[in-house]
Design goal:
This protein is α/β, with parallel strands linked by helices and 228 residues long. The protein has a domain at 2-13 and 25-37 and 93-226: Phosphatidylinositol (PI) phosphodiesterase (TIM Barrel), CATH 3.20.20.190. It contains 10 helices and 9 strands. The protein has helices at 18-27, 53-56, 67-74, 83-90, 106-114, 133-142, 159-162, 180-188, 201-209, 220-226, and strands spanning 2-5, 31-38, 44-46, 96-100, 126-130, 148-152, 168-174, 192-196, 214-217. The chain is globular, with a radius of gyration of 17 Å. The protein starts with a strand and ends with a helix.
């Protein structure tokens, strides 16, 4: 079972920062997971919320400022990196799970990643994930080689409807909605299966016994240390 660092490793350093990603790599994660929003000038940036309030105590929406303004606003307090910066550092060094959060974030994200993919096999270094089938379909239309992950809340079997419509590589479930039958079926279809956010080693062990391929965690050091 693979350990996937959540927003880098948000239990070890401020989430979605280069510091957090470095901490995740140091802890030995197999995959880095992080989130994407889009700035006013169309630049993919690495932040979970669409607003700076929770992470930076500034009530400003990401979509209302440029990437340069965002960089200036956060420079002294957990700088928000651009996706380009993250790709420049980690591309081909560790697999990336890029979750598109913002409205219409999928296409700009895929367009940027495509610049790092000189051949179809290069897409194997990442996958792009989303709750929104519309985003995944738009990405697939732009680049059929892009490996996609469908995230699930509520309906644990939604992936069945889309597995032949897009290049579905993985299925991710919120921990409240994952179940053994869904894991079994997705694995049978040859999909990579993972769940989030798992910070309890006993929960991780149980999921492993049910056949899950990976867990997303804030504390990769603890999960790795306690896995059997």
């Amino acid at each position: 079972m693979l350990v996937i660092g959540h927003r880098g490793a948000r239990g070890l350093a401020p989430e979605n920062t280069i510091e957090s990603m470095d901490a995740a790599v140091k802890a030995g994660v197999s995959i880095l997971e992080f989130d994407i929003q889009i700035t006013k000038d169309g630049i993919p940036v690495v932040i979970h919320d669409d607003n700076l309030k929770r992470t930076h105590n500034e009530n400003i929406k990401i979509s209302t400022i440029t990437a340069k303004e965002l960089s200036r606003l956060t420079a002294k307090n957990n700088p928000v990196p651009t996706l380009k910066k993250v790709l420049d550092i980690y591309w081909k060094k560790i697999p990336l799970n890029i979750e598109v959060k913002g409205d219409k974030a999928g296409l700009p994200t895929a367009e940027l990643v495509s610049k790092y993919c000189k051949k179809p096999a290069d897409w194997n270094h990442c996958f792009i994930s989303s709750y929104k089938p519309s985003e995944l379909k738009e990405i697939h239309k732009f680049s059929p080689h892009t490996r996609l992950a469908m995230l699930h809340k509520y309906n644990s079997f939604k992936f069945i409807l889309y597995r032949n419509k897009i290049n579905l590589f993985a299925v991710g479930w919120h921990q409240s909605y994952v179940n053994k039958a869904a894991i079994w079926l997705a694995n049978k279809f040859g999909l990579f299966t993972y769940t989030y956010t798992i910070n309890n080693p006993k929960s991780a062990q149980k999921l492993k016994s049910q056949g899950i391929n990976g867990v997303v965690t804030d504390f990769p050091d603890i999960i790795k240390k306690n896995m059997h």
